[in-house]
Amino acid sequence: MTGRIIDGKAVARETEEEVAAEVRLLGFQPGLTAVRVGNDPASEIYVRSKAKKAEELGLRGEQRVFPDSMSEDELLAEIKRLNEDPSVDGILVQLPLPRQIDARKVIDAIDPAKDVDGFHPVNVGLLHLGRPVLAPCTPAGVMRLIDSTKIAIEGKHAVVIGRSDIVGKPMAALLLQRNATVTICHSRTANLESIVRQGDIVVAAVGKPLMVTGSMIRQGAVVIDVGINRVGPELAQRLAHDEAKSRLLAKNGSVLVGDVDYARAAEAASWITPVPGGVGPMTIAMLMRNTVTAARWRRQ
Ligand code: NAD
């Protein structure tokens, strides 16, 4: 079997069109405020592209940028102001934050009704209770990608590799809610290979290039690769069998790969996400989705 490619860009575009159509029907403009502290170059790109995408879809996208020296109290005061501003429907604070600021305190200070990242403990609780909730964007996007294959989730064995608060844990909760039998694997899991091989659905969210090998994938499994890793010539040998990646690596000196050995896993999978162009594009689309949902729940 050779896996069909799940086109994350296409599913993200569809989601965004849906969001834009919903915004046109709302009769008001939902507002998303992205807060960035300091000048981490990756955060700068993320925050800018989130605000830009919001504008593109008819939302009000605002960036609030503060210096690296901002104190925790100052940021908490800013969050309070945004919580109280009726024109702000979604607040997201780009992580990581500078050392003097406790990210947990900041997340806990966001009004759960405006927590479009779905990281607030109230939202985490609601998610695990299976109640309506603003779910974390990356795993919510993965659910859409799986649904795009039309493969039924109910009754399937889903193996999630990784147990982070932003991907692995909420991923497992969303799959469980859809009646999958869920196994969560992590850094201390024994016999990882034999467990992953049982997965009808495998979601890898680890951050270790190519750790999921082709031999770990059961024939016909749906494989979702959340990992994003930029690798250099040190991986040239392990990528030798992947013509496309090898070519890019030779040309650019580095290449983006996921946690899954794509070329080999695709030989066994029924469906598989590429990196880039799989899970990545879904995260921003689901953030927009959450902002519109938050706006509807608060205002209607
Ligand atoms: P994290 O570092 O917080 O968590 C990694 C998890 O992997 C941990 O729970 C750990 O227990 C597990 N792990 C580590 N080594 C392991 C091993 N050998 N075997 C099994 N499990 C192991 O990372 P994260 O924030 O969850 O992100 C994971 C990856 O997904 C990263 O590559 C990140 O860049 C990517 N990511 C992508 C998106 C996106 O939009 N596409 C969003 C978030 C994260």
Key structural traits:
3-stranded parallel β-sheet, 11 strands, 300 residues, 6-stranded parallel β-sheet, binds nicotinamide-adenine-dinucleotide, globular, Rossmann fold
Walkthrough of the structure:
- With 300 residues, this protein is of the alpha/beta class.
- The protein has 2 domains: 27-111, Rossmann fold (3-Layer(aba) Sandwich), CATH 3.40.50; 136-281, NAD(P)-binding Rossmann-like Domain (Rossmann fold, 3-Layer(aba) Sandwich).
- It is built from 11 helices and 11 strands.
- It has a 6-stranded parallel beta sheet, with helices on both faces. It has a 3-stranded parallel beta sheet with strand order 3-2-4, with helices on both faces.
- The longest helix is centred in the last third of the chain and has 20 residues, at 280-299.
- It starts with a strand and ends with a helix.
- The relative contact order is 0.17.
- The mean pLDDT is 97.
- Nicotinamide-adenine-dinucleotide is lined by residues 138, 161-164, 166-168, 185-187, 189, 192, 205-208, 226-229, 279-280, 283.
